[in-house]
Design goal:
Layout (H helix, E strand, L loop, with lengths): L19 E4 L13 E7 L2 E8 L2 E11 L2 E10 L4 E12 L5 E9 L5 E8 L10
Antiparallel strand pairs: 1-2, 1-8, 2-3, 3-4, 4-5, 5-6, 6-7, 7-8
C-alpha cells in the first residue's frame, strides 16, 4: 500500500454518512474485492456499513469514529457459505475532488490473516449531456 500522506493542516475529513466506497484493488480469494460495495452511515461518532459483492454475499461492520480515525469490527458471509470476522482500524482522508478514501489496517479474528487495503468513494455518475 502506498505511504499514507499526513498533513496536519489538512481540513477534517467529511462524514461517511450516505457514501458508497469500493476497494481500489482485489484482495485474496473469498475476501473483499473491487466488486464489493460498502454503504456507510455515520452519526454522533458511530459508524456502520452494509457490504456485498464479489465473493461476499453479505457483510456488516460497526464501530466508532474519533476525528479521522475509525475503529470497527466486521463480519461477513462468503459465497462458499463460510463466515468470517475481524477488526479494522482506518484513517479517513478527504480527496481533492470531495470524495473520501479510507486507509485500512485489518486483521481476521476468525482465522489467520492480516493486511492493509484502500477503499475510495465511488465517483459521481455523469449527468445527462446537452445535445
Amino acid at each position: 500500500m502506498p505511504d499514507q500522506p499526513h498533513r496536519p493542516d489538512a481540513p477534517a475529513a467529511p462524514s461517511l454518512d450516505g457514501r458508497v466506497l469500493v476497494p481500489v484493488a482485489d484482495q485474496a480469494p473469498g475476501q473483499v474485492g473491487t466488486r464489493t460495495r460498502f454503504a456507510y452511515h455515520e452519526r454522533d461518532g458511530v459508524v456502520w456499513a452494509d457490504y456485498a459483492g464479489g465473493e461476499v454475499v453479505r457483510g456488516h461492520l460497526v464501530g466508532t469514529r474519533t476525528g479521522d480515525r475509525l475503529d470497527f469490527r466486521y463480519v461477513q458471509l462468503r459465497s462458499d457459505g463460510t463466515t468470517a470476522s475481524g477488526h479494522c482500524a482506518s484513517r479517513v482522508v478527504a480527496l481533492p475532488d470531495g470524495r473520501v478514501r479510507l486507509w485500512e489496517t485489518w486483521e481476521w479474528e476468525s482465522h489467520e490473516g492480516r493486511g492493509t487495503s484502500v477503499v475510495e468513494e465511488t465517483p459521481p455518475e455523469p449527468g445527462p449531456t446537452a445535445d
